[in-house]
Amino acid sequence: MNSTIKYFTDIFKGVLSLWAGMRVTGKYFISPGEIVTEQYPENRATLKMTGRFKGEVIMPHDENNQHKCTGCGICELNCPNGSIEIITKKVPNEEGKMIRAIDKHIYHLSMCTFCELCIKTCPFDAITWGQDFEHAVFDRAKLTKVLNKPGSSLKKKEVKS
Amino acid sequence: MILDIYSFSTLTSSIDNSLHNMMSPWMATLTEFVLVGIVFLLFYALLGLFLVYLERKVCAVIQNRIGPNRVGRWGIFQTFADFIKLLMKELITIKHADKFLFNLAPFIVIIASFMAMAALPFAKGLQAIDFNIGIFYVIAVSSLGVVGILIAGWSSNSKYSLIGAMRSGAQIISYELSVGLSLLAIVIFSGSMQLSTIVESQADGWWIFKGHIPAFIAFVLYLITATAEINRGPFDLAEAESELTAGFHTEYSGIKFAFFFLAEYMNMFIVSAIAATLFLGGWMPFHIGGWEGFNQIMDYIPSILWFFGKTFVVIYIIMWFKWTFPRLRIDQMLNLEWKYLLPLNLMNTVIISFVVLMGLYFK
What we know:
The structure holds two protein chains of two kinds. By secondary structure, chain A is an alpha+beta fold. Chain A has helices at 2-30, 74-78, 117-121; strands at residues 56-58, 66-67, 84-92, 98-108, 128-130, 144-146, 153-154.
């Protein structure tokens, strides 16, 4: 007798739980709420990418055309497919001593797999992700970019007072 | 009563008469065969494409998306573009496949669903063949499709196809029983297997209302088992794209794949049309006994609209299933049929016989 009761309660519970699922999707059908589809070429002007989007590697510069890259080359060492080349130069500091500084931070977008190892390992947080994703060009050479802007220099560390 | 201006029998009989005046009787019959065939082919193709579009839109709305919206306004020509693409695709021949059976299988599947459509009453006076065993014919013919699926799986020389086809075979053999039993409910109520008689018997109320609880249970059981019978989600084990790439039509390409695809959607239309005809009154307008004014207003809606309206409501419910529930495992599916649906169906049949014998339903 117990098994008979269990049989029918099983059916009843099963139907109830199926109905619960159908209620959820039915509610979405009637009131879809926020539409997640991005209609891309039309909404190009207003399109906001999400914060974690990996568009391309960029080096942020401040208003004095200064960046945080010291030219240490750790990103070049960590890049698994050689898409970063660091060319350094020697510049004199205020005491007249020759120190190493970045000359060109060359980034081959065509070889990048967006693994984020360079950004994760950068000790000075000099490079980060850009949000631009329209990379199509007609010439492969255009995919090789120099990340530090011409004439830029290393940002001085803030002296703790 | 139903208005005669919406009846298609005047149109069809005038075509019949003019053909008989023009040519000998057997030539007229032959011409009618060809005409009906062309009309059905066009209807089949257009409705199949529309159902694919509808499915994509419904699933998009359920998932908070927009769905096809580029080709034509609201993307209505999307499926036509897809179909043209499929027509132009290469038909890949498989090494060591059984060529004859491989090419035959899509036709068996599509012919099975095509034949089932012939017996459907679309509107008053619009029915290709009115068998006196109409519902039996539809069940018998629509289950022929599984032969095509089994042949497709066997002849493809691919393990995915074979597993998909065998699953489909197990599925149809078990669920065919429940489909038959749940349709038997209405056969008991109306006392006829002829589809036109079944529709006429619902002039004063649809069977789902007149037959109250047992008819409603039979309707729900029919929806579940019919979904399983047409290999749609959550019972789409025969294709199970996450396990078997595409199941029995893995090796098919181009127009042969399109045949399977179209047949699947048309089967959905056919089972929905049967549900609408048997449980929801077919082309009969919605009538409430005693409300003369209301009934007359309902009569002004053409019967063909009633039929398609009801059918699309059932189609929507089947799509709603598919985009809500996860796929069942093969053992869960067979358990559901043999341990739950079949005993429930048998009990329901006994109850309905009792109800009809005692006259406990609304007449």
